[in-house]
Write a structure and sequence with these properties.
The protein has 648 residues and is an alpha+beta fold. Helix content is 35%, strand content 11%. It has helices at 12-17, 19-37, 71-78, 80-84, 120-132, 184-197, 228-232, 244-247, 261-281, 299-305, 354-362, 367-376, 398-404, 437-456, 465-475, 480-483, 516-521, 530-539, 545-563, 569-578, 591-607, 612-615, and strands at 46-59, 64-68, 91-95, 101-106, 140-143, 157-158, 203-206, 237-240, 252-257, 287-288, 291-292, 331-332, 408-409, 411-414, 425-428, 486-489, 511-514. Helix 5 runs antiparallel to helix 14, helix 11 packs antiparallel against helix 12 and helix 14 crosses helix 18.
């Protein structure tokens, strides 16, 4: 959840006074990092995943399931090993936005040795077990679930708390203050987004129209004393009004260290094209605020949940007090590619700070990279702590990270932290979390292997960025995997260039509309498909038998998810609700239906209940032990290493 500074948070009015200071010093800090580490080379591939979890409390007599506000109690216990035995901890735990959420990662980065692909699922299982050890197994559980189905409904938390529509950080009609994590960053973010915007955030998701759903579907809010909700809510939409509806959702993210800055930029661009595809494949959010939605994903919800743009910035009124009209929320898809080679495909008009851009260019950044950061820095800082205003720009990077970490985009380019051995990294952010460790490990493994294929085979996946945006819109639609088509490149090599090797223009002959099945699995002789390319790569490297068996299970899962043979989590949840004996075909997911759904999710996630329609019947050989022949990411033999530039 970004930079977790300790200290005394400033109000929005106070933070705004220091916005130019933060931007100026943030760019100075970035330049210190850039000048010091621009030439850094030969970092080994390291990677890791982040899984977000929710805590759930069951009442089996009343047949209810609520979000358990217990993360503040659990987190110190989960972090004890990391604090007492650093460097040897297998897991690492961080707070997340809501007081019912936790974020778990591997204790140490994976990478280098191919056997690490056989460890990730076992590590995820360990994380789940660690949380369950501190819960009452009779009526409490941890779930890797994208969106709790009745978030924002009356008494959706345990203990129960009422929302405060005229006070607290969000002024929400539905989301109580107590559901926000107690760390001051989270309430401060919530309050400052609302105050900067000038109104509460407004989230409207189209409702799924079943045979008994009112038409038009219009809600009345009894506690809407100021009338803001009634004005913001749209007919035939599910209305939500707080940051918690987005940041209270869970996702799966992956971060990769590249061998140098140019490889990181290249991966950023190439992976950006895949973000909508993985978003659709991982779809896991068909229910919001107790209603079936006519979408399957969380992306537009979380985008609107942190949209701090004023009316001027949204283009609703002419610019007067603000600097820019801004097309998107600060949580959205990327607006430009990062490498020089990809520049011809950056066809989206984006705002950027001209003064910052010129400063960066004068300091040696090329134009695409300078525009990237100048675009991020059109935003204001959303949080600032009084103890962190005046910093040593050569030693600290808090001002840079302040704005960097609150641009929540589909991809994130991550310079090395100040005074750290960590290299240049990219973060892959669109994937919705899955119910089981097997599924999450499969998605993580697939994305990591794709990075190796891109580099090893020198693939070019680039298409115009406007087409990537179109793909992201399609990815969120109901049953997108089976029903939608996506712009994707058919010629995976550069199709033409100038004397410098830079592609002259993004030719339409290089891409066309394809199904996700065709993109992932291929289409006869027309397109090879990503999984066949991964298998070709695996055939060229030294992979031990157990790891290859495990990877094969993961690729089989992704393949059948893409073909529609396996349901997405969203499809499965929607079917569960619509086939429930108490469902009245009115789009309402009642407390009893939600209880049965969550109880089934618990059985699948934590007790091994089969669910072949979701993921078949896998039997991986995952292990927490790396084995005797692969000592470390930096110390393995060449045959067992896949280094940063993809060479085996």
């Amino acid at each position: 959840m970004g930079l977790l500074t300790e200290g005394s948070p400033l109000s929005w009015a106070e933070t705004k006074k220091h916005a130019d200071h933060v931007r100026s010093h943030g760019i100075t800090q970035l330049l210190h990092i850039f000048h010091r580490l621009e030439k850094r080379e030969n970092d080994c591939l390291k990677w890791g995943d982040e899984v977000e979890y929710v805590l759930v409390k069951f009442d089996h007599e009343e047949k209810t399931a609520k979000l358990l506000l217990k993360s503040a109690t659990l987190l110190p216990k989960l972090q004890e090993e990391e604090h007492t035995n650093p460097g040897k901890n297998e897991t690492s735990w961080k707070p997340e936005y809501a007081s019912y959420m936790l974020e778990g990662t591997p204790g140490q980065p994976l990478g280098g040795c191919m056997r690490h692909f056989n460890m990730i699922e076992a590590n995820m299982k360990l994380r789940r077990e660690e949380v369950m050890n501190f819960l009452n197994p009779d009526n409490e559980c941890v779930l890797s679930m994208t969106c709790f189905p009745r978030i924002g409904c009356p008494q959706f938390t345990f203990p129960s708390h009422k929302p405060t529509p005229t006070s607290g950080a969000s002024h929400s009609l539905f989301f109580p203050q107590e559901a926000i994590n107690q760390h001051p960053r989270f309430s401060t973010l919530t309050r400052n987004i609302r105050e900067r915007r000038g109104t509460k955030v407004a989230i409207n998701v189209p409702i799924f129209k079943d045979v008994n759903t009112p038409s038009p579907f219009i809600e009345k809010f009894s506690n809407d004393e100021e009338g803001e909700g009634s004005k913001a809510a749209k007919a035939d939409h599910i209305y939500m009004d707080a940051m918690g509806f987005g940041m209270g959702c869970c996702c799966l993210q992956m971060t990769f260290q590249a061998c140098n800055i140019n490889e990181a930029r290249h991966l950023y661009d190439q992976l950006a094209v895949l973000t909508p595809i993985m978003h659709a494949l991982s779809a896991g959010a068909p229910i919001f605020r107790g209603y079936l939605a006519d979408v399957d994903c969380r992306w537009n919800v979380i985008s609107a949940a942190v949209d701090d743009r004023t009316e001027e910035e949204r283009g609703l009124v002419p610019l007067k007090n603000d600097r820019f009209q801004i097309r998107k929320s600060r949580y959205d898809s990327i607006d430009s590619y990062l490498s020089v080679q990809a520049a011809p495909y950056s066809d989206i008009k984006m705002a950027y700070d001209e003064e910052i851009f010129q400063t960066l260019v004068k300091e040696g950044m090329d134009e695409p990279m300078a525009k990237h950061f100048a675009h991020l820095y059109i935003r204001d800082p959303l949080t600032l702590f009084s103890e962190k205003i005046d910093l040593n720009d050569e030693e600290d990077s808090d001002h840079f990270e302040n704005i960097q970490s609150t641009n929540w985009q589909t991809m994130r380019f991550k310079p090395p932290p100040a005074n750290s051995p960590i290299g240049w990294r990219v973060e892959f952010r669109p994937t919705e979390v899955q119910l089981t460790d097997f599924e999450n490990a499969a998605f993580a493994t697939f994305v990591v292997l794709i990075t190796r294929v891109i580099l090893s085979f020198n693939l070019n996946l680039l298409i115009p960025l406007s087409k990537v945006d179109e793909n992201l819109a399609s990815a969120q639609k109901r049953d997108a995997v089976r029903k939608e088509r996506f712009h994707f490149r058919t010629m995976l090599k550069v199709c033409g260039g100038n004397d410098k090797g830079v592609e002259v223009c993004p030719k339409e002959c290089c891409y066309k509309l394809m199904t996700i099945d065709e993109i992932i699995n291929g289409k006869d002789a027309e397109f090879s498909g990503l999984i066949p390319l991964i298998n070709k790569f695996l055939d060229s490297v030294d992979v031990d038998f157990e790891t290859r068996c495990t990877i094969s299970q993961y690729l089989k899962f992704i393949s059948k998810k893409a073909s529609g043979e396996y349901l997405t989590t969203a499809q499965w949840m929607r079917g569960f609700v619509m086939n429930h004996p108490e469902y009245k075909h009115d789009s309402i997911v009642s407390e009893h239906i939600a209880y049965d759904l969550l109880k089934t999710c618990h059985e699948i996630s934590n007790k091994g209940q089969p669910c072949p329609e979701l993921f078949g019947c896998p039997e991986t050989r995952t292990s927490r032990s790396i084995g005797p022949h692969c000592k470390s990411a930096n110390g393995s033999s060449p045959q067992e290493m896949v280094n940063g530039n993809g060479v085996v």
